[in-house]
Amino acid sequence: MTIQTIDAIPLSHSLDGRALGSSRGKTDTRFTTLVRAETEDGLVGWGEAFAPPRTVATAIDELLADEIVGMDPYQVESLVTDSYTGSLVDYHFADGPFVQSAISGVDIALWDILGKLTGESVTRLLGSGDVSSVVPYASTGYFTSWGQDIEEPMRAAADEEFTAVKLKIGRGVEDDIDRVSTAREILGDETQIMVDFNGNYTPKQARRSVAALEKYDLTWVEEPVPAENLSGYRQLTPELDIPVAAGEAHYGRFEYKQLLDERLVDIVQPNIGRIGGLSEARFIAKLAATENIPVCPHVWNGGVGVAAALHFYASLTTYPHSENVPVLLPFEFDRSPNPLRDELLEDPLDPRGGELAVPDGPGLGIDIDEEALERYRIE
């Protein structure tokens, strides 16, 4: 069985000027690229590439499609390696974000096909079948163009019965304190709280902020300094008692190996839609396990990408923990408006109530709403 067609479908949705985001910037558009792969026998697999859609669609069409057509889907784990060696795409460009994002979408689609071919979920194909649900966390508390008060999204998260919440900070220490103290007051002592600086501080600024926030019992601090500031992580991480998480802006096994080897972070956060797909995320997870560093994927994707990340997360090893120790950090679920997540799947994933089910059908266990797909397609 071989791949007969591979199609990249760029998608976009305008938020009508209501921009939201982080301390490093806001967006008034949600976008992604779906990848549709079909075998000669008519099996269809779906993937998602999380990067600017027209650019990624062009990369798939111009750089990958000719090599993917005719490929055996069982060769899926060779995609990223072949990109590094130059067998799939010129190695000079292989480790760039757009090529890796494009490969991610294809990789996920081929895993979906393999699951449908074997009748198994992607979670089982990746090596686990015991995790049927995970604890989601509300990724919320964004900075907005309309100046939304932090109380509003925190109360919404509480009303939806989330037991873990992440909010944006990074606009100054006093503002950080105000936002986190408000969140703790509303959410109570039992809720896990994480904070995301989105790399907007120097190491000294981050240290001051984290010191001021320690009394609020944070589960982790995310991207306290920019992704490229490895010396900043080298300086900061050993000094903090609160775990440092990062990885959403890193690409590929070689960058992750440096994060892991030097213990620059305490938690790594690959995004399945741009890291190289499930295969590369699986490789990175094994590297992380050898260094006893937890993996908790970054998820700000559309519905297909969320499903892929969920299967990956459910497959992760619990090393070194026994059954007597909590083993998985909560799973990210964005609470900002995104029809590319909530409308593209015939049965949308529902994180409310403190539990998120892992789809148990073959492959990713999802079906695409074709009408919604056409509604958000970029012509």
TrEMBL record:
<dbReference type="Pfam" id="PF13378">
    <property type="entry name" value="MR_MLE_C"/>
</dbReference>
<dbReference type="Pfam" id="PF02746">
    <property type="entry name" value="MR_MLE_N"/>
</dbReference>
<dbReference type="InterPro" id="IPR029017">
    <property type="entry name" value="Enolase-like_N"/>
</dbReference>
<dbReference type="GO" id="GO:0016052">
    <property type="term" value="P:carbohydrate catabolic process"/>
</dbReference>
<keyword id="KW-0479">Metal-binding</keyword>
<dbReference type="InterPro" id="IPR029065">
    <property type="entry name" value="Enolase_C-like"/>
</dbReference>
<dbReference type="InterPro" id="IPR046945">
    <property type="entry name" value="RHMD-like"/>
</dbReference>
<protein>
    <submittedName>
        <fullName>Mandelate racemase/muconate lactonizing enzyme family protein</fullName>
    </submittedName>
</protein>
<feature type="domain" description="Mandelate racemase/muconate lactonizing enzyme C-terminal">
    <location>
        <begin position="151"/>
        <end position="243"/>
    </location>
</feature>
<dbReference type="InterPro" id="IPR018110">
    <property type="entry name" value="Mandel_Rmase/mucon_lact_enz_CS"/>
</dbReference>
<dbReference type="InterPro" id="IPR036849">
    <property type="entry name" value="Enolase-like_C_sf"/>
</dbReference>
<dbReference type="InterPro" id="IPR013342">
    <property type="entry name" value="Mandelate_racemase_C"/>
</dbReference>
<dbReference type="InterPro" id="IPR013341">
    <property type="entry name" value="Mandelate_racemase_N_dom"/>
</dbReference>
<keyword id="KW-0460">Magnesium</keyword>
<dbReference type="GO" id="GO:0000287">
    <property type="term" value="F:magnesium ion binding"/>
</dbReference>
<dbReference type="GO" id="GO:0016836">
    <property type="term" value="F:hydro-lyase activity"/>
</dbReference>
<dbReference type="GO" id="GO:0009063">
    <property type="term" value="P:amino acid catabolic process"/>
</dbReference>
